[in-house]
Design brief:
Elements (H helix, E strand, L loop, with lengths): L1 E7 L4 E7 L4 E9 L7 E5 L6 E4 L5 H13 L12 E8 L10 E2 L2 H9 L8 H14 L5 E5 L9 H4 L5 H7 L8 H15 L7 E7 L3 E7 L2 E5 L21 H10 L3 H10 L2 H6 L5 H9 L3 H24 L5 E5 H6 L1 H8 L11 H4 L6 E2 L8 E4 L4 H15 L1
Helix pairs in contact: 1-3, 10-11, 11-13
Bound molecules: adenosine-5'-diphosphate (ADP).
Adenosine-5'-diphosphate binds next to α10 and α12.
């Protein structure tokens, strides 16, 4: 059974074709600059040359058409016909309060995703466009929506209600939703498996540190708190996002310094975080190398980043009444040796020590705490696409 996983951004589309009998990813592809001059599709298949198509794609339908062509391409593809794709799993960023699980996509589901547009104006519209384009091009293939917010729907009210007038929650749905749920779920389940433990018996802090960063407190397999909030802007500092700050900074900038709300939006989402502090880049690699060369602002950006992550890990260990395992994942979590060490510095009182030799690793499953540590620390590469494909197969089979 081959499942196509689609993740549509505003001008990009990531895809994978996964053979669910073996759970092997057969193809990984990326379409960039959809609707912009210079659209490009890049597809990777193990054992074959990289396949690149540069042709203008006006919209997501054009892009998906090209993806399907690339998949069946005689020389560069992996399937003979589209009929071999038995289901499509779509990543959808916001499912609001309605979806605590993945669902088979029908008209009602599309409408509900549309209803959540005001909560995720940048993300849900391209997700819907991707779903509709697939529906048109592959009308008989079942499709499933997997929501970034779903895993966090188990949070208790004390974690998700904002301390604002309660009517704002009732009238506008203002609350913490949390994001990266598919990743937090995948790595928490995976680490339990690797440790040979039942997830029901574990208190886990998962640290998803990529361009966007969030942490989650996962107790007994359920998310009980997470650092992102009403939108993916809240929580720890990120590549270009500020994370949580005193909201009065906004009224100060608007009223005293003449900023508009759209300036503020741009400032908090695109110009802050690692980029804003370092003045170098939002890419962690650039900032690490500048810091090594003695750039003080780059070093400060890293110090703040590690401090925020450290404080969040400690908070989650606190609310769970302890922690059994801390997991690092995503681009920075999987690759930055310094980040894993520095984010945990001073937290050894929780019951672990880091083994520097074991921590000297990138992108593979690895325990990085010493053998005698009571609390374990792991690097677990995330695999949101596999999680989406698993949910897709499960739902399609039971339908
Ligand atoms: P996204 O949230 O877009 O999926 P990723 O999970 O791919 O992002 O993470 C991207 C981040 O990971 C970037 O800041 C990048 O610099 C960082 N990263 C990738 N490789 C390394 C590395 N070898 N060392 C440090 N950081 C890395």
């Amino acid at each position: 059974m081959k499942t196509l996983v689609i993740n549509c951004g505003s001008s990009s589309l990531k895809y994978q074709l996964i053979d669910m009998n073996t759970e092997n990813s057969l193809v990984q592809g990326l379409v960039e600059r959809i609707g912009i001059e210079g659209s490009i599709l890049t597809q990777k298949v193990e054992g074959k040359d990289k396949y690149v198509i540069e042709v203008n794609m006006h919209n997501h339908k054009d892009a998906i058409k090209l993806v399907l062509e690339a998949l069946v391409n005689k020389e560069h593809g992996v399937i003979k016909s589209m009929e071999e794709i038995s289901a499509v799993g779509h990543r959808v960023v916001h499912g609001g309060e309605k979806y605590s699980h993945s669902v088979i996509i029908d008209e009602e589901v599309i409408e509900s995703i549309r209803d959540c547009i005001s909560l995720a104006p940048l993300h849900n519209p391209p997700n819907i466009i991707g779903i509709e384009a697939c529906k048109e091009l592959m009308p008989n293939t079942p499709m499933v929506a997997v929501f970034d917010t779903a895993f966090h729907q188990t949070m208790p009210k004390e974690a998700y209600i904002c301390p604002l007038p309660y009517e704002l929650y009732e009238n506008y749905g203002i609350r913490k939703y949390g994001f990266h749920g598919t990743s937090h779920m995948y790595v928490s389940q995976k680490v339990a498996k690797v440790m040979g433990k039942d997830i029901k018996d574990l208190k886990i802090v998962t640290c998803h540190l990529g361009n966007g960063c969030s942490l989650a407190a996962v107790k007994g397999g359920k998310s009980i708190d997470t650092s992102m909030g009403f939108t993916p802007l809240a929580g720890v500092m990120m590549g270009t996002r500020a994370g949580s700050i005193d909201p009065s900074v906004i009224s100060f900038l608007v009223e005293e310094q003449g900023y508009t709300m759209s300036d503020i939006d741009e400032l908090l989402n695109k110009k802050s975080g690692i980029l804003g502090i370092s003045g170098v880049s939002s890419d962690f690699r650039d900032v690490l190398s500048e810091s090594e060369k003695g750039n003080e602002r780059a070093k400060l950006a890293l110090d703040i980043f590690h401090y925020k992550v450290r404080a969040q890990i400690a908070a989650y260990a606190g609310i769970m009444g302890g922690v059994d395992v801390i997991v690092f994942t995503a681009g920075i979590g999987e690759n930055s040796i310094v980040t894993r060490k520095e984010s945990l510095r001073g937290l050894e009182f929780l019951g672990f020590r880091i083994d520097d030799e074991k921590n000297d690793v990138r992108g593979k499953i690895q325990e990085i705490s010493t053998e005698d540590s009571k609390v374990k620390v792991y690097l677990i590469p995330t695999n949101e696409e596999l999680m989406i494909a698993r949910d897709t197969v499960k739902l399609v089979k039971n339908n």
